[in-house]
Amino acid sequence: MVVGKMKFTFQKRVKLAQGLWLLSWMATLGGAVTFTLGCFLKTELRRREEVMDNTDIHCVPNTLMIVGLSSMVINYFAGRICQDALDVGRFPRWKTYLKPYFGCSVFFTTLMLISVILSYIMKGSLETSLKIGLKNGIRFYKDTDTPGRCFQKQSMDHLQMEFQCCGNNDYKDWFEVQWISNRYLDFSTKEVKDRIKSNLDGRYLVDGVPFSCCNPSSPRPCIQYKITNNTAHYSYEHKTEELNIFTHGCREALVNYYMGLMNTIGAVVLSVFLIQCSVLTSVRLLQTSMEAIAGQENVEIETEGYLLEKGLKETFMEYVDPVLKLLLLNQVFPPEGKSEVGAAGTTTTTS
Amino acid sequence: MVLLKLKFPFQKRVRLAQGLWLLSWVAMFSGAITFALGVFLKTELHRRSEVMHSMDIHIVPNLLMAVGLASVGINICAGKVCQDSLDPSRFPRWKTFLPPFFCISIFFTFLLMVAVILSYALQPSLEESLKIGLKNGISFYKDTDTPGRCFQKETIDRLQIEFLCCGNTNYRDWFEVQWISNRYLDFTSKEVKDRVRSNVDGRYLLDGVPFSCCNPASPRPCIQYSLLDNSAHYNYEYQTEELNLHNRGCRQALVSYYMGLMNTIGPGVLSVFLLQMTMLVSLRYLQTAMKPVLGQENVEIETEGYILEKGVKESLLEMKTKVMKIIRFTQVGDASAKALTTDPEAAATTSAPEKAATPPG
């Protein structure tokens, strides 16, 4: 049961080869673009790695880079194949290479599709990673004298100013941690002593936020401290005040930013995937239509091209069998060796 | 006295034409790059136009854009001229066109040099413009309810955050203006009344700065208010504290930024200038080398090329007389037109006395 059978006159074959050559160059460019997009995404993720707990999300740009490079190689060879296709003398040398070539190409093209799907699946993992990373960033904000944590303050401040966000879920996250270091607290004053006594862990908690939460669009100078105390400030009501500090949480802001990036990249990679599929289909049709000509004198006969000689399952098994044989080969030999030794042993004992 | 005479055999002429064709394409691209650099500089200046008082500095990017466009046109013409130069039948049509072409090209090429010189000469003007612009920005910081000034606060805040600067010259500029609006001051409290009474104009002045002056690199949470009061904050000494706020003034930060931009653009523009001059010199040699060939049957003779037929002074005088002739020609044209209109009157006046003279006779 042949899949995708088509008749190919000489002229049609020539046009197919020419179209394929052009398409392969386009697809090579598409592969380069995919690689570049992978690099770009990786650098963007690395820039904010201080507020991410794990690097699971990095599998998306890594896959994109691998697929981009392999796509460039695949399409380069596709171009070479179709250049040789119309020359009956040079085409047979590709014969042995074509089967593994198609196997690898289909694998990497499927990987392209998988990377796009991954970018949507990994959203939950990214969100969890950011949740833990930001929580740590807020907790270690005050530890500017501890090696390994001394840059947390600066990265949190820059993050909040750049993404116009405050805290993890919102600004209230800052009320729950001590973000002012003990080095700058006067423990002899009543106010500090009261605050420390007011909670179990002895932490200095305030209803205030760092300056990086301040919104430049606010019409009044920023109110950072005593945010929930309406009487502390003139003409101020914290429930209706919207412009004073940023209302979005940084987790939401970062997730939106990265999802936006991946949506754009996903659209581009999908179109590259479609071009790649058409390249592979054309190469396959060209190869099968050229097979009938090999060894014939008249090159201009009409031939048939097909995608798969047998059905899908049988073709798949045909490709997978050699791989399995390679893996099973090691297991087949030892039992045969043992039975020979056993036979030899019995023959010696009997004789 | 011919200036810079060179001999040109046929092969050398051919090579000159080919090299010139390539050079004209390269010069055309560099003209396009000059235009792009001008556009970039203009957008960067425009972005901060709210803190600039005058637009004098915009002459630099405007010049670059004009010269870039002119350069593209000049080089396209040059390419066409050298394409036709090796064909004696097509070259003569450029004859009348070339002298004014050279004048215009030299004018625009020197404008490039002028643009580079101006970018350095206008630095004081830029600094002055920024000084006044920032002073206004700081003065109007509180006027977020006044139309026309309501964006000053956001502009200054974003500027100070982006360029890591505070105030005009330094952070003390904020101590001299009232940057907290009266809308947010409780005039019944003693503190506000004291501060307002402490100065002649009745302004609420304090030793504090807006949040945008805060330095994220500081190890301690930002101290914005009571900056000069060491006792107001624990373990704080304002004389030795360096990381709390941004140290440099926004004027210095912006001037450094724009001078850096122009220093990067300057060498690029200078190389474009050199390229353009090389191209013009080669074109002049080609034109003068082709002159003796026109009208001759044997195209492959050896000719001489030069830059100027006479010396520099004589050529300038010649050009001056030509220009004066053109101006006088237009004036003479007017004068002769006037003479024609007055003639019928003169004829009428002369014929009248004749008529008066004849009857008695």
Topology:
The complex is a heterodimer of chains A (351) and B (361).
Chain A: E1 6-8, H1 10-47, H2 59-85, H3 95-121, H4 123-139, H5 152-163, H6 190-197, H7 250-291, E2 303-305, H8 312-350
Helix pairs in contact in A: 1-2, 1-7, 2-3, 2-7, 3-7, 4-7
Chain B: E1 6-8, H1 10-47, H2 59-85, H3 98-121, H4 123-139, H5 152-163, H6 190-197, H7 250-290, E2 303-305, H8 312-357
Antiparallel strand pairs in B: 1-2
Q: Would you mind describing this structure in some detail?
A:
The complex is a heterodimer of chains A (351) and B (361). Chain A is mostly helical. Chain A is built from eight helices and two strands; from the N terminus they run βαααααααβα. Chain B has helices at 10-47, 59-85, 98-121, 123-139, 152-163, 190-197, 250-290, 312-357, and strands at 6-8, 303-305. A two-stranded antiparallel sheet of chain B has the order 1-2. In chain B, α3 (98-121) runs antiparallel to α7 (250-290) and α4 (123-139) packs antiparallel against α7. Mean pLDDT of chain B is 87; it is low at 344-361.
Which descriptors apply to this entry?
heterodimer; A: 351 residues; mainly alpha; 2 strands; 60% helix; elongated; B: 361 residues
Distance between the termini of chain A: 58 Å
Strand content of chain B: under 5%
Mean pLDDT over the full residue set of chain A: 87
Roughly how many Å apart are the termini of chain B?
A: 70 Å
Q: Mean pLDDT score of chain B, rounded?
A: 87
Give the helix tally of chain A.
Answer: 8
As a percent range, the share of helical residues of chain B equals: 55-70%
State the major sheet of chain A.
Answer: 2 strands, antiparallel
Radius of gyration of chain A: 33 Å
Summarize the structure.
The complex is a heterodimer of chains A (351) and B (361). By secondary structure, chain A is mainly α.
